[in-house]
Amino acid sequence: MKNYLRGILKKNEFYLFMIMVLMVIVMSAINPNFGTLENGFDILRGTTFIGICSMGFLVVLITGGTDISFTATATVAQYIMALLMVSNPNIPVVFVILVPMVIGAVLGSVNALLINRLKVPVIIITIAMLNTYYGAIQFFSEGEWLYNFPEWFADFPRILLITFKNEDGVAYGLTSLTAIWILVALVTSVLLRFTMLGRKIYALGGNQTAAGREGIHVNRIRIFAHSFLGLIAGIGAIVHAMVTQTAAPNAIVGQEFNAVAAVVLGGASIAGGGGSVLGTLLGVLLIATLKNGLTVMGVPAYWHQVFIGLTLVISISVTAIREKMAKKNAGGINVES
Amino acid sequence: MSEKTIELKNISKVYPGVRALDTINFEIGRGEVHCLVGQNGCGKSTLIKIMSGVEKPEPGAEIYINGELCKHLNSHISMSKGVQVIYQDLSLFSNLTVKENIAFRDNIRKKSLFVNWKEVDKIARKALELIDVDIDINAKVGTLSIAQQQLVEIAKALTGDLSLLILDEPTASLTGKEVRSLFRVITNLKNKGISILFVSHKLNEIFEIAEKVTVMRDGKIIGDFTPSELDHDRLVYLMTGMRELYKQPKPIGNDYEVVMEARNLSKNKNYKDISFKLKKGEILGITGLLGSGRTELALTLFGMNPYDSGELIFEGKAVKWTSNREACAAGVGYVPEDRLNCGLIMNQSIEDNLTITTIKSYLSRFGLINSGERLKALNTKVKELGIKFSMPEAAVKTLSGGNSQKVVLAKWLLVNPKVLILDEPTIGIDVIAKNSIHTLIKSLAENGMSIIMISDEVQEVLQNCHRILVMSKGRIVFEFTPDQITDKELLEKFNLA
Hints:
The structure holds 2 protein chains of 2 kinds.
Chain A lengths: L1 H9 L1 H19 L6 H26 L7 H18 L5 H25 L4 H20 L9 H5 L4 E6 L5 E5 H19 L1 H11 L1 H6 L4 H27 L11 H10 L11 H20 L4 H29 L8
Antiparallel strand pairs in A: 1-2
Helix pairs in contact in A: 2-13, 3-8, 3-9, 3-11, 3-12, 3-13, 4-5, 4-6, 4-11, 5-6, 5-11, 8-9, 9-11, 12-13, 13-14
Chain B lengths: L3 E12 L2 E12 L3 E5 L6 H8 L10 E4 L2 E2 L5 H6 L2 E4 L11 H13 L6 H14 L15 H12 L6 E5 L7 H16 L3 E5 L3 H7 L2 E6 L2 E6 L6 H9 L17 E10 L3 E9 L3 E5 L6 H8 L7 E6 L2 E2 L5 H7 L1 E4 L3 H5 L6 H5 L16 H15 L15 H13 L5 E5 L7 H16 L3 E5 L3 H7 L2 E6 L2 E6 L6 H10 L1
Parallel strand pairs in B: 3-8, 3-9, 6-7, 7-8, 13-18, 13-19, 16-17, 17-18
Antiparallel strand pairs in B: 1-2, 1-4, 4-5, 9-10, 11-12, 11-14, 14-15, 19-20
Helix pairs in contact in B: 3-4, 3-5, 4-5, 13-14
């Protein structure tokens, strides 16, 4: 038991959790409105979209790649879904759910196919696709916002799975959308920890040459990872539309950094091969809590980015310093004899 | 069951323009520890590739594994028949745990969808038990030493059916203790009936562990020998076809001044109580196994690893350098052990690499480089050292090991140092280039340069140094001159140290 506890202390996730607890305590002290359960659920609801997308981004990052086109993928998926709903108000629910997921997976896989074929750095390809998808949707939509979705589309996000009532009698609690986020997180966790596919994803990120030698189909794994991110982005697109009850061509693109920051803060290595769902969840929550806290404290919105950036720098520095110290204390020659 | 684990008949391999292997007949017996020796480019890597199925031999070849004729061999088939290769750049996932690495191949073979972590645990423990090694199976492989990683790779190889284990230069980066450990594992495997083939050029290892030695030269097998039939000179003759002639360095007069002196230099976790005197024109050898503190000491003498206590006296003045720039300005040069990463900038041109230390001396009035001057300096040194290349603009990575090392040397010679520290100067270089570099070093010393040569090759140190220091665990344990000791005795001192 002692070793288990000591093991937890060493983990990155533990520190993140502690920092978050500290933040909540400090901010609640400054403004009591912050530390309420209602605010907590509010934070969850506000960050559900980024939370979902981060899961997909984590998987791609672990393979040693990156993909920032997912926001554009989500936009395209969302817009097409919205078009379908607006032109066919009686469209079966199944289609509304499946279409964005399939579109997302396909658009995501295009990235992988290009990466596998061309010898161009991954980041360049995904930037190119981001611009391609975004430009295309801007062009075809002519910037028009879509709304007036079927009633069930507006009702679903209002469903509360765990309900509380506040002093004014208004109900709040765990929304269905947040539940979807939790589901996505669980699926991702099982994928990464318990399936051979997930382990191959880690292996690829750890040592691509060795992965090839051990018989891992590197190209196929990559296609899976990027398709997975696309599919997850599609789910995120549905959730996003349910929250805003509109589909706007320019609403999602620009938020890539939030997912990247959350995943990196959560301990995933930029070079690939490392990262966990728990860490990413904590990263997302930390940033969301920070943002919410700053708002509640009256800090202007412009400063939020600065704070998040600083948090990221400090977190990465601390990790780097800890690794350096570990290397220094290990090794060396035992001269004492 | 067949007496021979692997039998190769009539193996040839032709690449465009070169016959890499020429009618090779080769066999390894069951449970035999076999060593493959030869210069760089003699064909040993190609032979291994053919055995492991990575390359196909020319038609007419016959390969028998465990008595079974294998008509179409590829890497998967050869692995399934029990042939496994452990490359120098290990095939491990540093971000995954030891147990996962060991069980990985097995899991892929089983084509399972889900991971059974309990099974993984079991497989890993069993494999490590087979080689009687104690490593934490939950540790991430990236945190292990190279020696431990190697043992993990060997354990991984044992999860399948293993008949022949091929090790490519396995001891290149191991300390003495770790080499002992590896040899124990090899003996263990041999007793289980597994054959071992390893490529090595370290004579002390060949004599210690090999039962049979095969010597290759120019794509042909020169012969199979037992270690008792060989000694260093015979081996070199077989590998190169030439008798190695060497001259001891010219002795130094007693009146020569002391250029560098160390008095009780100590640095925590690096070395302790180092004292020596280096005279002008002297070649001082420092030897000892990896992990004895030699490189750490060398870096201190070059200013990159400031000492904690003691004194360092250079040309009569006490110095405590904190950067290599200070040491270089004072007149010390350092040719690093890791040529590829620390000695050269691989993608840049030969010209750029050679003139990098003295670049400031070719600047014209406005700070622009005078390429004429630079080229002159380059050509002088190229002629002096006999460096072979296509053109000065070619990237240095296109050069052979010997030639690229000469570029590193040339770079430092342009600085005209008073003391030149050479850290494993001929590692990975074939015998002929080795000789050329040794002759150069001796002539530099004759012209007044003091040289510190660090090497763990016993022969190199005995043939080229005026005096030799042996280091172990951070201290100097022996000091003598080459005429006081034979190579066998020196090897024994290594083992005791």
